[in-house]
Amino acid sequence: MIRLTTKKFYITTPIYYPNRPPHIGSAYTTVIADILARYYESLGYEVFFLTGTDEHGMKLFKEAKNKGISPKEYVDSMVPFFKRAWESLDIRYRRFIRTTDPDHEETVKRIVMRIYEKGDIYKGVYRGLYCVECERYYTAKDLVDGKLCPIHLKPVEYLEMEVYYFRLSKYQDDLIRLYKENTRFVLPAERKQYLIRKIEEEGLKDVAITRPRWYLSWGIECPWDSDHVLYVWVDALLNYISGVGYINDREKFEKFWPPNVQLIGKDILWFHAVIWPALLMSAGFELPQTIFAHGFLTVNGKKISKSLGTDIDPIDLVNKYGSDTIRYYLARAIPFGEDGDFSEKDLVRYHNDELANEIGNLIYRVLTLTERYFGGITPEASRLTDIDKEIIGELRKHLNEYHNFMKNLQVHHAVMRTIMFAQTINAYLNKTAPWSCWKKGDKDSVARAIRNSLDWIYVLTAMMYPFMPRTADKISKQLGLDSIPRLSDVRLIGNIKPGHKLGEKEILFKKL
Ligand SMILES: [Zn+2]
After folding, report:
1. How far lies 76's CA from each of 13, 124, 207, 242, 314, in Å?
2. Could you tell me the distance, in angstroms and rounded to a whole number, from the CA of residue 210 to the centre of ligand 1?
3. From the CA atom positions of the chain, what is the Rg in Å?
4. Alpha-carbon gap, residue 2 to 143, rounded angstroms
5. 231 CA distance to ligand 1 centroid (A)?
């Protein structure tokens, strides 16, 4: 027997810092990752989608201390906020990794040990200006009047500590070559140009990857020196290896490694596009295909912050508008890769103009016509007319572009093509006007217009699925289908057989 090899798609989000519940910014990244995961799944790929929480480090340690509980108790209490938010947005991750998971800790130790044995790690001294009360280093430019801690307004002191360094400088040429030769490694392209310029101008310095235990104990122990704890970002980056089964499911790891797309915010580009590939090169792993850094989100024109009241809870939004409208809006309104603004006014406008007026009306209209003229049964129709063929050409163009945009991570353009697809079917109905053909007794033309429209709504449903899984499910039921159409199977004609009975029609989107 021939074993068919399935294509795979491995996508990650950054792991989030659980010192507060997720806001709309982290929801944005996670929703886009889910859209891409569902897209590839609908195309028949085997998909692995990883998200999770980054649970070590000083900030969490201190928050826990303030609350009088252990750091582990503290992170345990925060993780459910993330899981509930992702559930409310219909995020279907395959694993939620926590950096306190035992298999993660074991993976990190093994990989860091490998890098150490290779000679890419050495002991050195970290020197700098230190605030004892903050328990952190500052650079001179952070200080008030050049000498005071910006938080405590007390003089900082000069402090030295022993740490282990990773030889990042050794990988400078390899990294520059990587950016220049592999045009898809860092996207959007202007972010890559920034990295090349910065590295060529300033050169790469080695980076500290441990902290002495006296300084910070909440972290993974350094495997060759128990007086040291691994610094939180090296621990965090390696989640992309442990999360896909490096220790506990080797078969899965072999199937999915390397990541196809790693979504990040542009603020963590340096870690992901410089340090991460250098660690992988050192440890001998194949590199990810694409690191995609999206822009920042503001909310109603303002920065996301607790004090401005713009740290909107995604669950509140879902309760107000429904998850599909939020998903649609996030994918539609913000050009993926650029900075964008989350505006509730726009959200309502897109919901009413595009979802209710364009898509909702189209489906309601076609189902009503089928019911009125053919008792809710898909009619038999004769061959295609020139108008049909012309429309099929247009629809094919939209569908092809939709796929191109999805594969190039231009999710907002793919949404637009979905809307254009619906608009084209609406225009076709207006042009063929089955209601006036009926009056003239031209039943064949009525049947053809309806049969074609139903076939195309079938395709539209598959296109909508990655963005709006709930709506796609509802449309499928209204079409009388057992399951949501898959992008791998749709055709522009012949999806729905004559004689097929449609389901109950229902309004898809109530106007806001
Ligand atoms: Zn301080």
Report:
1. 20, 35, 30, 19, 20
2. 22
3. 27
4. 67
5. 20
Residue in this structure with the two tokens 């992170």, named with its chain if needed:
75
Q: Quick one: CA torsion of 435, 439, 441, 442, rounded to 10 degrees?
A: -30
Neighbours of 206 (CB within 10 A): 16
Measured in whole angstroms, how far is the alpha carbon of residue 379 from the centre of its chain? 41
Cα of 135 vs centre of ligand 1, distance in Å, is 7
Q: How far is the CA of 234 from the centre of ligand 1 (A)?
A: 25
Q: What are the boundaries of each domain within the chain?
A: 344-478
All residues at 6 or more sequence positions from 362 whose CB lies less than 8 Å from its CB, including other chains? 422, 425, 426, 429, 457
Give me ligand 1 centre to Cα 58, in Å: 13
How far, in Å, from the CA of 145 to the mean position of ligand 1? Answer: 14
The burial class, CB within 10 Å (0-12 / 13-18 / 19+), for 167 is middle
Domain covering 344-478: architecture: Orthogonal Bundle (1.10)
154 Cα: distance to centroid of ligand 1 (angstroms):
7
Spell out the per-residue pLDDT of the chain, length 512, in tens.
444 567 999 999 999 999 999 999 999 999 999 999 999 999 999 999 999 999 998 889 989 999 999 999 999 999 999 999 999 999 999 999 999 999 999 999 999 999 999 999 999 998 888 887 776 778 888 899 988 998 889 999 888 899 999 999 999 999 999 999 999 999 999 999 999 999 999 899 999 999 999 888 999 999 999 999 999 899 999 999 999 999 999 999 999 999 999 999 988 999 999 999 999 999 999 999 999 999 988 988 888 888 888 888 999 999 999 999 999 999 999 998 899 999 999 999 999 999 999 999 999 999 999 999 999 999 998 889 999 999 999 999 999 999 999 999 999 999 999 999 999 999 999 999 999 999 999 999 999 999 999 999 999 999 999 999 999 999 999 999 999 999 999 999 999 999 999 999 999 999 99
Q: Which residues contact 474 (CB under 8 A, 6 or more apart)?
A: 506, 508
* SS3 state of residue 59: helix
Contact 65, 55 (CB under 8 A): no
- Reading the block at residue 71, the tokens are 């750091």
Q: How far is the CA of 150 from the centre of ligand 1 (A)?
A: 7
H helical segments located in 352-501? 361-374, 386-407, 411-432, 434-439, 443-464, 469-478
Residue 220's nearest CA partner among 74, 110, 101, 109 is: 109
* Cα distances (angstroms) measured from residue 447 to each of 273, 378, 389, 429: 56, 8, 16, 12
Rounded to whole angstroms, the maximal C-alpha distance in the chain is: 92
- Which region holds residue 186: left if phi is over 0, alpha if psi is between -120 and 50, else beta? beta
**One-letter amino acid for residue 94 of the chain:** R
